[in-house]
Amino acid sequence: MYFVSIFYFEWYDGKNSIKGRLLDGLFLFLLFYDIMTSEKGENMKNIYIFGHKKPDTDSVTASIALSYLKNQLGMHTEPRVLGQINPETKFVLSYFKVKEPGYLNDVKLQLKDIHYHKGYFLKDTNSIYDSYLYMSEKGITGLPIVKENRKFCGLITIKHLANEFIKGDFTSLDTSYQNILNVLEGQEVLKFDSEIKGELLVASYRSTTFLDNIILNSNMILIVGDRHSIIEYAVKSGVKLIILVGEGKIKPEHLQMAQENHVNIIQTAHDTLYTVKLLSLSNYIRTILPKSRPISFDQNDYLDDFIEVSQKLRHTNYPVLNKNKECLGLLRNSDIHEKDRKQVILVDHNEKNQSVDGIEEAEILEIIDHHNLGSLTTNNPINFRNMAVGSTNTILYRLYVENQIKIPKEIAGLMLSGILSDTLIFQSPTTTELDRQTAKELANIASVSIYDYGMEMLKAGTSLKGKTKEEILYNDFKIFSVEDKNIGVGQIFTMNFEEIRKDLNSYVDLLNQVAVANDYYFVTLFVTDVIKNGSYVIYSDRAKSVLERAYMLENIEQGHYFENIVSRKKQIIPYIMDALTR
Known about the structure:
The chain is an alpha/beta fold. The strands form five sheets. Strands 3-2-1-17-18-19 form a six-stranded parallel β-sheet. α1 (2-11) runs antiparallel to α2 (18-36), α9 (228-237) packs parallel to α10 (252-260) and α20 crosses α21. The chain is elongated.
Protein backbone atom coordinates (compact mmCIF):
# COMPACT_ATOMS: atom_id res chain seq x y z
CA MET A 1 0.00 0.00 0.00
CA TYR A 2 2.91 2.41 0.62
CA PHE A 3 4.05 2.21 -2.99
CA VAL A 4 0.50 2.74 -4.27
CA SER A 5 0.04 5.87 -2.18
CA ILE A 6 3.34 7.43 -3.32
CA PHE A 7 2.56 6.63 -6.94
CA TYR A 8 -0.87 8.20 -6.65
CA PHE A 9 0.08 11.44 -4.97
CA GLU A 10 3.30 12.07 -6.84
CA TRP A 11 1.76 11.76 -10.29
CA TYR A 12 -1.76 12.93 -9.62
CA ASP A 13 -2.32 16.28 -11.36
CA GLY A 14 -5.98 17.15 -10.75
CA LYS A 15 -9.27 15.37 -10.42
CA ASN A 16 -10.54 16.83 -13.66
CA SER A 17 -7.65 15.80 -15.83
CA ILE A 18 -7.56 12.59 -17.87
CA LYS A 19 -4.39 11.56 -16.15
CA GLY A 20 -5.95 12.14 -12.73
CA ARG A 21 -9.04 10.06 -13.49
CA LEU A 22 -6.99 7.18 -14.84
CA LEU A 23 -4.80 7.18 -11.76
CA ASP A 24 -7.92 7.35 -9.58
CA GLY A 25 -9.07 4.10 -11.15
CA LEU A 26 -5.63 2.53 -10.90
CA PHE A 27 -5.39 3.54 -7.25
CA LEU A 28 -8.76 1.97 -6.43
CA PHE A 29 -7.83 -1.20 -8.31
CA LEU A 30 -4.51 -1.51 -6.49
CA LEU A 31 -6.20 -0.75 -3.18
CA PHE A 32 -8.72 -3.54 -3.82
CA TYR A 33 -5.91 -5.88 -4.87
CA ASP A 34 -3.95 -5.06 -1.72
CA ILE A 35 -6.96 -5.89 0.45
CA MET A 36 -7.66 -9.15 -1.38
CA THR A 37 -4.04 -10.28 -1.10
CA SER A 38 -3.55 -9.17 2.49
CA GLU A 39 -3.34 -11.62 5.38
CA LYS A 40 -7.12 -11.56 5.57
CA GLY A 41 -7.36 -12.43 1.90
CA GLU A 42 -4.97 -15.32 2.44
CA ASN A 43 -7.39 -17.01 4.87
CA MET A 44 -5.56 -15.81 7.95
CA LYS A 45 -6.89 -17.67 10.96
CA ASN A 46 -9.48 -15.80 12.99
CA ILE A 47 -8.82 -14.87 16.59
CA TYR A 48 -11.99 -15.39 18.61
CA ILE A 49 -12.92 -12.93 21.35
CA PHE A 50 -15.60 -13.98 23.81
CA GLY A 51 -16.90 -13.73 27.35
CA HIS A 52 -18.19 -16.41 29.71
CA LYS A 53 -20.65 -19.23 29.06
CA LYS A 54 -23.64 -17.30 30.39
CA PRO A 55 -23.25 -14.17 28.27
CA ASP A 56 -24.47 -10.97 29.91
CA THR A 57 -24.47 -7.45 28.52
CA ASP A 58 -20.98 -6.61 29.76
CA SER A 59 -19.35 -9.72 28.30
CA VAL A 60 -21.11 -9.51 24.92
CA THR A 61 -20.53 -5.79 24.41
CA ALA A 62 -16.92 -6.13 25.58
CA SER A 63 -16.34 -8.88 23.00
CA ILE A 64 -17.66 -6.69 20.20
CA ALA A 65 -15.85 -3.54 21.36
CA LEU A 66 -12.51 -5.31 21.81
CA SER A 67 -12.82 -7.04 18.44
CA TYR A 68 -13.36 -3.67 16.76
CA LEU A 69 -10.33 -2.23 18.55
CA LYS A 70 -8.06 -5.17 17.67
CA ASN A 71 -9.12 -5.07 14.03
CA GLN A 72 -8.31 -1.36 13.88
CA LEU A 73 -4.85 -2.27 15.17
CA GLY A 74 -4.31 -4.74 12.31
CA MET A 75 -5.44 -8.02 13.83
CA HIS A 76 -8.16 -10.26 12.38
CA THR A 77 -10.62 -11.04 15.15
CA GLU A 78 -14.25 -12.05 15.51
CA PRO A 79 -16.50 -11.52 18.54
CA ARG A 80 -18.37 -14.64 19.60
CA VAL A 81 -20.82 -15.73 22.32
CA LEU A 82 -20.89 -19.04 24.17
CA GLY A 83 -24.63 -19.18 24.73
CA GLN A 84 -27.95 -17.47 24.14
CA ILE A 85 -27.93 -13.77 24.90
CA ASN A 86 -30.48 -12.42 27.36
CA PRO A 87 -33.32 -9.94 26.65
CA GLU A 88 -31.34 -7.02 28.05
CA THR A 89 -28.45 -7.65 25.67
CA LYS A 90 -30.85 -8.15 22.77
CA PHE A 91 -32.33 -4.75 23.57
CA VAL A 92 -28.87 -3.16 23.58
CA LEU A 93 -27.82 -4.66 20.24
CA SER A 94 -31.13 -3.70 18.67
CA TYR A 95 -30.98 -0.15 20.07
CA PHE A 96 -27.56 0.52 18.57
CA LYS A 97 -28.21 -1.58 15.44
CA VAL A 98 -25.30 -3.96 15.98
CA LYS A 99 -25.40 -7.55 14.73
CA GLU A 100 -25.43 -10.31 17.35
CA PRO A 101 -22.07 -12.17 17.46
CA GLY A 102 -21.95 -15.71 16.16
CA TYR A 103 -22.10 -18.72 18.48
CA LEU A 104 -18.87 -20.51 19.37
CA ASN A 105 -19.43 -24.11 20.41
CA ASP A 106 -15.86 -24.96 21.39
CA VAL A 107 -12.20 -24.37 20.58
CA LYS A 108 -11.12 -27.99 20.62
CA LEU A 109 -8.41 -29.06 18.23
CA GLN A 110 -9.82 -30.31 14.94
CA LEU A 111 -8.09 -32.13 12.13
CA LYS A 112 -8.01 -28.91 10.09
CA ASP A 113 -5.73 -27.52 12.82
CA ILE A 114 -3.22 -30.33 12.31
CA HIS A 115 -0.26 -30.06 9.93
CA TYR A 116 -1.34 -33.06 7.91
CA HIS A 117 -0.27 -33.64 4.29
CA LYS A 118 -2.61 -31.23 2.54
CA GLY A 119 -2.99 -31.81 -1.19
CA TYR A 120 -1.54 -35.32 -1.03
CA PHE A 121 -3.70 -37.38 -3.40
CA LEU A 122 -3.72 -38.65 -7.00
CA LYS A 123 -6.47 -39.02 -9.57
CA ASP A 124 -7.74 -42.52 -10.22
CA THR A 125 -6.61 -42.16 -13.85
CA ASN A 126 -2.96 -41.92 -12.84
CA SER A 127 -0.96 -45.09 -13.31
CA ILE A 128 0.11 -47.58 -10.67
CA TYR A 129 3.66 -46.53 -11.44
CA ASP A 130 2.76 -42.87 -10.84
CA SER A 131 1.45 -43.81 -7.42
CA TYR A 132 4.65 -45.62 -6.55
CA LEU A 133 6.80 -42.68 -7.64
CA TYR A 134 4.59 -40.21 -5.75
CA MET A 135 4.76 -42.17 -2.50
CA SER A 136 8.52 -42.63 -2.86
CA GLU A 137 9.06 -38.94 -3.51
CA LYS A 138 6.84 -37.82 -0.61
CA GLY A 139 8.07 -40.47 1.81
CA ILE A 140 4.58 -41.78 2.58
CA THR A 141 3.17 -45.29 2.78
CA GLY A 142 -0.41 -44.47 1.81
CA LEU A 143 -2.09 -42.30 -0.81
CA PRO A 144 -5.74 -41.17 -1.19
CA ILE A 145 -7.15 -41.66 -4.68
CA VAL A 146 -9.77 -39.29 -6.09
CA LYS A 147 -12.01 -38.97 -9.10
CA GLU A 148 -11.84 -36.05 -11.53
CA ASN A 149 -13.90 -33.83 -9.18
CA ARG A 150 -11.64 -34.66 -6.21
CA LYS A 151 -14.29 -36.95 -4.74
CA PHE A 152 -12.54 -39.50 -2.58
CA CYS A 153 -12.76 -43.06 -3.91
CA GLY A 154 -10.12 -45.11 -2.10
CA LEU A 155 -6.74 -45.44 -0.44
CA ILE A 156 -3.67 -47.15 -1.90
CA THR A 157 -0.84 -48.28 0.36
CA ILE A 158 2.64 -49.61 -0.23
CA LYS A 159 1.27 -53.03 0.69
CA HIS A 160 -1.21 -52.85 -2.20
CA LEU A 161 1.54 -51.84 -4.61
CA ALA A 162 3.84 -54.63 -3.43
CA ASN A 163 1.04 -57.12 -3.97
CA GLU A 164 0.50 -55.79 -7.49
CA PHE A 165 4.22 -55.97 -8.33
CA ILE A 166 4.27 -59.65 -7.32
CA LYS A 167 0.78 -61.01 -8.00
CA GLY A 168 -0.69 -58.46 -10.40
CA ASP A 169 -2.48 -59.12 -13.67
CA PHE A 170 0.23 -59.08 -16.34
CA THR A 171 -2.06 -60.14 -19.21
CA SER A 172 -4.29 -57.13 -19.75
CA LEU A 173 -4.30 -53.33 -19.74
CA ASP A 174 -6.89 -50.77 -18.70
CA THR A 175 -5.25 -47.40 -18.93
CA SER A 176 -4.56 -44.42 -21.14
CA TYR A 177 -2.23 -43.97 -24.08
CA GLN A 178 -0.41 -41.27 -22.12
CA ASN A 179 0.15 -43.53 -19.09
CA ILE A 180 1.77 -46.17 -21.30
CA LEU A 181 3.90 -43.54 -23.00
CA ASN A 182 5.07 -42.19 -19.63
CA VAL A 183 5.78 -45.53 -17.98
CA LEU A 184 7.70 -46.91 -20.98
CA GLU A 185 9.48 -43.58 -21.53
CA GLY A 186 8.33 -44.08 -25.10
CA GLN A 187 7.70 -42.00 -28.17
CA GLU A 188 4.35 -41.45 -29.82
CA VAL A 189 4.24 -42.89 -33.32
CA LEU A 190 0.48 -43.02 -33.94
CA LYS A 191 -2.31 -42.11 -31.57
CA PHE A 192 -6.03 -42.56 -32.24
CA ASP A 193 -7.38 -43.56 -28.82
CA SER A 194 -6.86 -41.85 -25.48
CA GLU A 195 -8.12 -44.91 -23.63
CA ILE A 196 -6.32 -48.21 -24.13
CA LYS A 197 -7.99 -51.42 -22.98
CA GLY A 198 -7.10 -54.90 -24.17
CA GLU A 199 -5.18 -58.15 -23.82
CA LEU A 200 -1.36 -58.23 -23.90
CA LEU A 201 0.44 -60.41 -26.39
CA VAL A 202 4.22 -60.81 -26.93
CA ALA A 203 5.43 -61.82 -30.40
CA SER A 204 7.83 -64.45 -29.04
CA TYR A 205 7.33 -67.23 -31.63
CA ARG A 206 9.01 -67.57 -35.03
CA SER A 207 7.25 -65.35 -37.51
CA THR A 208 5.80 -68.26 -39.48
CA THR A 209 4.52 -69.94 -36.29
CA PHE A 210 2.98 -66.70 -35.13
CA LEU A 211 1.29 -66.00 -38.48
CA ASP A 212 -0.06 -69.54 -38.75
CA ASN A 213 -1.36 -69.94 -35.19
CA ILE A 214 -2.18 -66.57 -33.62
CA ILE A 215 -5.43 -64.80 -34.42
CA LEU A 216 -5.29 -61.08 -33.82
CA ASN A 217 -8.20 -58.69 -33.25
CA SER A 218 -8.97 -55.11 -32.23
CA ASN A 219 -8.73 -56.02 -28.54
CA MET A 220 -5.07 -56.99 -28.77
CA ILE A 221 -2.02 -55.06 -27.52
CA LEU A 222 1.01 -56.44 -29.29
CA ILE A 223 4.59 -56.16 -28.04
CA VAL A 224 7.00 -56.73 -30.90
CA GLY A 225 10.48 -55.90 -32.21
CA ASP A 226 11.41 -55.14 -35.78
CA ARG A 227 9.65 -58.28 -37.14
CA HIS A 228 8.06 -56.70 -40.14
CA SER A 229 5.85 -59.61 -41.23
CA ILE A 230 4.22 -59.74 -37.79
CA ILE A 231 3.86 -55.94 -37.76
CA GLU A 232 2.16 -56.08 -41.18
CA TYR A 233 -0.21 -58.82 -39.93
CA ALA A 234 -0.99 -56.75 -36.83
CA VAL A 235 -1.84 -53.51 -38.63
CA LYS A 236 -3.97 -55.37 -41.16
CA SER A 237 -5.84 -57.03 -38.25
CA GLY A 238 -6.49 -53.61 -36.70
CA VAL A 239 -5.06 -54.38 -33.26
CA LYS A 240 -5.62 -51.82 -30.51
CA LEU A 241 -1.96 -50.96 -29.94
CA ILE A 242 1.48 -51.98 -31.16
CA ILE A 243 4.44 -51.40 -28.84
CA LEU A 244 7.72 -51.43 -30.73
CA VAL A 245 10.52 -52.48 -28.35
CA GLY A 246 14.27 -52.06 -28.57
CA GLU A 247 13.79 -49.00 -30.78
CA GLY A 248 12.37 -51.26 -33.46
CA LYS A 249 11.56 -49.62 -36.78
CA ILE A 250 8.36 -49.77 -38.80
CA LYS A 251 8.31 -49.64 -42.57
CA PRO A 252 6.61 -46.66 -44.18
CA GLU A 253 4.07 -48.90 -45.94
CA HIS A 254 3.15 -50.54 -42.64
CA LEU A 255 2.83 -47.14 -41.02
CA GLN A 256 0.46 -46.13 -43.81
CA MET A 257 -1.68 -49.23 -43.24
CA ALA A 258 -1.71 -48.55 -39.48
CA GLN A 259 -2.87 -45.02 -40.21
CA GLU A 260 -5.72 -46.31 -42.37
CA ASN A 261 -6.78 -48.92 -39.77
CA HIS A 262 -6.48 -46.55 -36.75
CA VAL A 263 -3.86 -48.67 -35.03
CA ASN A 264 -2.12 -46.94 -32.12
CA ILE A 265 1.67 -47.29 -32.06
CA ILE A 266 4.23 -46.49 -29.35
CA GLN A 267 8.00 -46.95 -29.62
CA THR A 268 10.26 -47.61 -26.61
CA ALA A 269 13.98 -48.19 -26.17
CA HIS A 270 13.36 -50.88 -23.52
CA ASP A 271 13.74 -54.54 -24.41
CA THR A 272 10.82 -56.96 -24.43
CA LEU A 273 11.37 -58.32 -20.91
CA TYR A 274 11.57 -54.90 -19.26
CA THR A 275 8.64 -53.59 -21.31
CA VAL A 276 6.40 -56.45 -20.17
CA LYS A 277 7.48 -55.85 -16.58
CA LEU A 278 6.59 -52.14 -16.77
CA LEU A 279 3.40 -52.39 -18.77
CA SER A 280 1.21 -53.72 -15.97
CA LEU A 281 2.26 -50.73 -13.89
CA SER A 282 0.78 -48.38 -16.49
CA ASN A 283 -2.73 -49.53 -15.55
CA TYR A 284 -5.01 -47.00 -13.93
CA ILE A 285 -4.52 -46.96 -10.17
CA ARG A 286 -8.26 -47.43 -9.80
CA THR A 287 -7.90 -50.97 -11.19
CA ILE A 288 -6.25 -52.13 -7.95
CA LEU A 289 -8.28 -50.09 -5.45
CA PRO A 290 -9.53 -52.30 -2.60
CA LYS A 291 -13.28 -52.89 -2.71
CA SER A 292 -13.68 -52.11 0.98
CA ARG A 293 -13.85 -48.38 1.65
CA PRO A 294 -11.17 -47.23 4.12
CA ILE A 295 -11.82 -45.17 7.24
CA SER A 296 -11.67 -41.47 6.46
CA PHE A 297 -12.15 -38.34 8.58
CA ASP A 298 -13.78 -34.98 8.09
CA GLN A 299 -11.50 -31.98 8.54
CA ASN A 300 -13.87 -30.72 11.26
CA ASP A 301 -13.60 -33.91 13.33
CA TYR A 302 -12.01 -33.47 16.73
CA LEU A 303 -8.42 -34.60 17.21
CA ASP A 304 -9.40 -36.53 20.35
CA ASP A 305 -11.92 -38.58 18.36
CA PHE A 306 -9.33 -39.30 15.67
CA ILE A 307 -6.80 -40.50 18.24
CA GLU A 308 -9.37 -42.79 19.85
CA VAL A 309 -10.33 -44.40 16.51
CA SER A 310 -6.76 -44.70 15.21
CA GLN A 311 -5.61 -46.39 18.41
CA LYS A 312 -8.25 -49.07 17.87
CA LEU A 313 -7.61 -49.56 14.15
CA ARG A 314 -3.82 -49.20 14.36
CA HIS A 315 -3.64 -47.98 10.77
CA THR A 316 -1.02 -45.48 9.66
CA ASN A 317 -2.76 -43.45 6.94
CA TYR A 318 -6.15 -41.75 6.92
CA PRO A 319 -7.69 -39.58 4.16
CA VAL A 320 -9.06 -36.20 5.27
CA LEU A 321 -12.22 -34.97 3.53
CA ASN A 322 -14.42 -31.89 3.57
CA LYS A 323 -18.20 -31.85 4.02
CA ASN A 324 -18.64 -32.49 0.27
CA LYS A 325 -16.54 -35.68 0.50
CA GLU A 326 -13.77 -34.04 -1.49
CA CYS A 327 -10.32 -35.19 -0.49
CA LEU A 328 -8.09 -32.60 1.17
CA GLY A 329 -5.05 -34.74 1.90
CA LEU A 330 -3.51 -37.46 4.02
CA LEU A 331 -3.25 -37.62 7.80
CA ARG A 332 -0.71 -39.93 9.38
CA ASN A 333 -0.49 -40.84 13.05
CA SER A 334 2.88 -39.11 13.22
CA ASP A 335 1.35 -35.81 12.03
CA ILE A 336 -0.74 -35.11 15.12
CA HIS A 337 2.10 -33.51 17.09
CA GLU A 338 2.29 -30.48 14.79
CA LYS A 339 -0.79 -28.30 15.15
CA ASP A 340 -2.09 -24.75 15.05
CA ARG A 341 -4.13 -24.18 18.17
CA LYS A 342 -7.11 -21.86 17.90
CA GLN A 343 -6.19 -18.40 19.13
CA VAL A 344 -8.52 -16.70 21.59
CA ILE A 345 -8.85 -13.57 23.71
CA LEU A 346 -11.00 -13.76 26.83
CA VAL A 347 -13.05 -10.93 28.28
CA ASP A 348 -15.00 -10.68 31.53
CA HIS A 349 -13.80 -14.03 32.92
CA ASN A 350 -10.69 -16.04 33.68
CA GLU A 351 -12.19 -19.21 35.16
CA LYS A 352 -11.79 -22.42 33.17
CA ASN A 353 -15.26 -23.72 34.02
CA GLN A 354 -16.82 -20.43 32.87
CA SER A 355 -15.02 -20.46 29.53
CA VAL A 356 -15.56 -22.22 26.23
CA ASP A 357 -15.27 -26.00 25.97
CA GLY A 358 -11.78 -27.05 24.97
CA ILE A 359 -10.13 -23.87 26.26
CA GLU A 360 -7.18 -25.97 27.46
CA GLU A 361 -6.52 -26.92 23.80
CA ALA A 362 -6.51 -23.31 22.59
CA GLU A 363 -3.83 -20.64 22.65
CA ILE A 364 -4.93 -17.81 24.94
CA LEU A 365 -3.40 -14.58 23.66
CA GLU A 366 -4.87 -12.13 26.13
CA ILE A 367 -7.32 -11.76 29.01
CA ILE A 368 -9.18 -8.58 29.96
CA ASP A 369 -11.24 -8.94 33.12
CA HIS A 370 -12.45 -7.24 36.28
CA HIS A 371 -12.98 -10.34 38.44
CA ASN A 372 -10.75 -12.12 40.92
CA LEU A 373 -8.04 -14.38 39.52
CA GLY A 374 -9.39 -17.76 38.48
CA SER A 375 -8.13 -21.17 37.46
CA LEU A 376 -6.93 -20.57 33.89
CA THR A 377 -3.27 -21.11 33.11
CA THR A 378 -1.23 -20.55 29.94
CA ASN A 379 1.93 -22.09 28.54
CA ASN A 380 3.37 -18.73 27.51
CA PRO A 381 3.32 -15.23 29.00
CA ILE A 382 0.28 -13.21 27.86
CA ASN A 383 -1.14 -9.74 28.23
CA PHE A 384 -3.48 -9.85 31.23
CA ARG A 385 -5.33 -6.61 31.97
CA ASN A 386 -7.20 -6.88 35.26
CA MET A 387 -8.63 -3.86 37.09
CA ALA A 388 -10.84 -3.43 40.14
CA VAL A 389 -13.64 -1.68 38.29
CA GLY A 390 -17.34 -2.35 37.81
CA SER A 391 -17.24 -3.38 34.15
CA THR A 392 -14.90 -4.87 31.57
CA ASN A 393 -15.87 -2.04 29.24
CA THR A 394 -14.32 0.50 31.60
CA ILE A 395 -10.98 -1.23 30.99
CA LEU A 396 -11.61 -1.30 27.24
CA TYR A 397 -12.18 2.44 27.19
CA ARG A 398 -8.67 2.90 28.58
CA LEU A 399 -7.30 0.66 25.81
CA TYR A 400 -8.99 2.78 23.15
CA VAL A 401 -7.46 5.90 24.69
CA GLU A 402 -4.00 4.35 25.01
CA ASN A 403 -4.03 3.22 21.38
CA GLN A 404 -5.56 6.50 20.16
CA ILE A 405 -8.42 4.74 18.38
CA LYS A 406 -11.60 6.73 17.85
CA ILE A 407 -14.71 5.04 19.27
CA PRO A 408 -17.66 4.91 16.83
CA LYS A 409 -21.06 5.94 18.15
CA GLU A 410 -22.55 2.42 18.16
CA ILE A 411 -19.46 0.93 19.85
CA ALA A 412 -19.61 3.67 22.50
CA GLY A 413 -23.28 2.79 23.07
CA LEU A 414 -22.43 -0.88 23.56
CA MET A 415 -19.60 -0.08 25.99
CA LEU A 416 -21.84 2.28 27.98
CA SER A 417 -24.50 -0.46 28.16
CA GLY A 418 -21.97 -2.92 29.58
CA ILE A 419 -20.99 -0.47 32.32
CA LEU A 420 -24.59 0.45 33.23
CA SER A 421 -25.61 -3.21 33.28
CA ASP A 422 -22.78 -4.48 35.47
CA THR A 423 -22.99 -1.53 37.90
CA LEU A 424 -26.83 -1.39 37.92
CA ILE A 425 -26.59 2.25 36.86
CA PHE A 426 -23.90 2.83 39.52
CA GLN A 427 -25.92 1.27 42.36
CA SER A 428 -23.61 -1.75 42.71
CA PRO A 429 -20.81 -1.54 45.31
CA THR A 430 -18.40 -2.59 42.55
CA THR A 431 -18.87 0.84 40.96
CA THR A 432 -15.80 3.05 40.91
CA GLU A 433 -15.31 6.68 40.05
CA LEU A 434 -13.54 5.51 36.89
CA ASP A 435 -16.74 3.69 35.84
CA ARG A 436 -18.75 6.88 36.27
CA GLN A 437 -16.26 9.02 34.36
CA THR A 438 -15.99 6.49 31.56
CA ALA A 439 -19.79 6.15 31.27
CA LYS A 440 -20.11 9.92 30.98
CA GLU A 441 -17.58 10.04 28.13
CA LEU A 442 -19.26 7.15 26.32
CA ALA A 443 -22.74 8.62 26.77
CA ASN A 444 -21.56 11.81 25.07
CA ILE A 445 -20.24 9.83 22.09
CA ALA A 446 -23.38 7.68 21.91
CA SER A 447 -25.69 10.72 22.37
CA VAL A 448 -27.86 9.12 25.08
CA SER A 449 -28.92 10.04 28.62
CA ILE A 450 -27.24 7.75 31.14
CA TYR A 451 -30.22 7.45 33.50
CA ASP A 452 -33.06 7.40 30.94
CA TYR A 453 -31.32 4.94 28.65
CA GLY A 454 -30.09 2.85 31.58
CA MET A 455 -33.59 2.43 33.07
CA GLU A 456 -35.01 1.55 29.66
CA MET A 457 -32.28 -1.09 29.26
CA LEU A 458 -32.81 -2.59 32.74
CA LYS A 459 -36.58 -2.77 32.24
CA ALA A 460 -36.06 -4.66 28.99
CA GLY A 461 -33.93 -7.21 30.82
CA THR A 462 -35.87 -7.72 34.04
CA SER A 463 -39.15 -9.08 32.71
CA LEU A 464 -39.67 -12.71 33.71
CA LYS A 465 -42.74 -13.17 31.53
CA GLY A 466 -42.69 -16.42 29.57
CA LYS A 467 -39.48 -17.72 31.21
CA THR A 468 -39.28 -21.21 32.68
CA LYS A 469 -37.73 -21.83 36.09
CA GLU A 470 -34.69 -23.35 34.37
CA GLU A 471 -34.27 -20.28 32.17
CA ILE A 472 -34.45 -18.03 35.23
CA LEU A 473 -31.83 -20.09 37.08
CA TYR A 474 -29.47 -20.31 34.13
CA ASN A 475 -30.03 -16.72 32.95
CA ASP A 476 -26.69 -15.73 34.51
CA PHE A 477 -25.31 -18.86 36.12
CA LYS A 478 -21.66 -19.28 37.04
CA ILE A 479 -19.71 -22.15 38.56
CA PHE A 480 -16.98 -21.52 41.14
CA SER A 481 -14.44 -23.94 42.58
CA VAL A 482 -13.73 -23.71 46.31
CA GLU A 483 -11.79 -26.27 48.37
CA ASP A 484 -12.20 -28.92 45.63
CA LYS A 485 -15.94 -28.25 45.59
CA ASN A 486 -17.95 -26.82 42.70
CA ILE A 487 -20.77 -24.45 43.59
CA GLY A 488 -23.32 -22.93 41.22
CA VAL A 489 -24.46 -19.34 41.74
CA GLY A 490 -27.21 -17.90 39.56
CA GLN A 491 -28.36 -14.29 39.52
CA ILE A 492 -31.29 -12.62 37.84
CA PHE A 493 -32.56 -9.05 37.98
CA THR A 494 -36.23 -8.23 38.36
CA MET A 495 -38.58 -5.57 39.60
CA ASN A 496 -41.12 -8.02 40.99
CA PHE A 497 -39.89 -10.87 43.20
CA GLU A 498 -43.49 -11.89 43.93
CA GLU A 499 -43.60 -13.64 40.54
CA ILE A 500 -40.97 -16.03 41.89
CA ARG A 501 -42.11 -16.19 45.53
CA LYS A 502 -45.44 -17.84 44.61
CA ASP A 503 -43.47 -20.85 43.25
CA LEU A 504 -40.72 -20.81 45.89
CA ASN A 505 -40.92 -24.52 46.75
CA SER A 506 -40.65 -25.51 43.08
CA TYR A 507 -37.50 -23.40 42.76
CA VAL A 508 -35.97 -25.10 45.80
CA ASP A 509 -36.73 -28.52 44.30
CA LEU A 510 -35.10 -27.44 41.03
CA LEU A 511 -31.93 -26.23 42.77
CA ASN A 512 -31.61 -29.51 44.67
CA GLN A 513 -32.06 -31.50 41.46
CA VAL A 514 -29.44 -29.41 39.61
CA ALA A 515 -26.96 -29.82 42.48
CA VAL A 516 -27.32 -33.61 42.51
CA ALA A 517 -27.31 -34.02 38.72
CA ASN A 518 -24.12 -31.97 38.27
CA ASP A 519 -22.32 -32.96 41.46
CA TYR A 520 -22.35 -29.38 42.75
CA TYR A 521 -21.77 -28.94 46.48
CA PHE A 522 -24.74 -26.60 46.43
CA VAL A 523 -26.63 -24.20 44.13
CA THR A 524 -28.01 -20.75 44.94
CA LEU A 525 -30.13 -18.28 43.01
CA PHE A 526 -29.93 -14.58 43.94
CA VAL A 527 -32.89 -12.57 42.68
CA THR A 528 -31.81 -8.93 42.62
CA ASP A 529 -34.46 -6.20 42.79
CA VAL A 530 -33.07 -3.24 40.83
CA ILE A 531 -35.57 -0.83 42.39
CA LYS A 532 -35.14 -1.86 46.05
CA ASN A 533 -31.38 -2.33 45.54
CA GLY A 534 -31.23 -5.68 47.30
CA SER A 535 -31.37 -9.43 46.62
CA TYR A 536 -33.51 -12.40 47.63
CA VAL A 537 -31.81 -15.79 47.91
CA ILE A 538 -33.11 -19.25 47.09
CA TYR A 539 -30.78 -22.18 47.78
CA SER A 540 -30.37 -25.94 47.70
CA ASP A 541 -30.48 -27.67 51.09
CA ARG A 542 -26.73 -27.96 51.65
CA ALA A 543 -26.23 -24.20 51.18
CA LYS A 544 -28.24 -23.25 54.29
CA SER A 545 -25.42 -23.56 56.83
CA VAL A 546 -22.89 -21.98 54.46
CA LEU A 547 -25.08 -18.92 53.93
CA GLU A 548 -25.67 -18.60 57.67
CA ARG A 549 -21.90 -18.61 58.30
CA ALA A 550 -21.27 -16.27 55.37
CA TYR A 551 -23.71 -13.61 56.53
CA MET A 552 -23.73 -14.41 60.27
CA LEU A 553 -27.41 -15.37 60.37
CA GLU A 554 -28.96 -17.81 62.85
CA ASN A 555 -31.74 -19.32 60.81
CA ILE A 556 -31.94 -18.25 57.19
CA GLU A 557 -35.11 -19.08 55.28
CA GLN A 558 -35.84 -19.52 51.60
CA GLY A 559 -36.44 -16.16 49.93
CA HIS A 560 -34.44 -14.24 52.56
CA TYR A 561 -33.90 -10.61 51.54
CA PHE A 562 -30.42 -9.05 51.74
CA GLU A 563 -30.61 -5.29 51.75
CA ASN A 564 -28.03 -3.45 49.62
CA ILE A 565 -26.54 -6.71 48.33
CA VAL A 566 -26.55 -6.67 44.52
CA SER A 567 -23.04 -7.68 43.41
CA ARG A 568 -22.29 -11.35 43.02
CA LYS A 569 -18.62 -10.59 42.47
CA LYS A 570 -18.13 -8.38 45.50
CA GLN A 571 -20.91 -9.15 47.98
CA ILE A 572 -21.79 -12.80 47.38
CA ILE A 573 -18.93 -14.97 46.12
CA PRO A 574 -16.23 -13.65 48.52
CA TYR A 575 -18.50 -14.26 51.53
CA ILE A 576 -19.44 -17.77 50.39
CA MET A 577 -15.82 -18.67 49.67
CA ASP A 578 -14.76 -17.42 53.08
CA ALA A 579 -17.49 -19.45 54.78
CA LEU A 580 -16.45 -22.61 52.92
CA THR A 581 -12.77 -22.26 53.75
CA ARG A 582 -13.27 -21.45 57.42
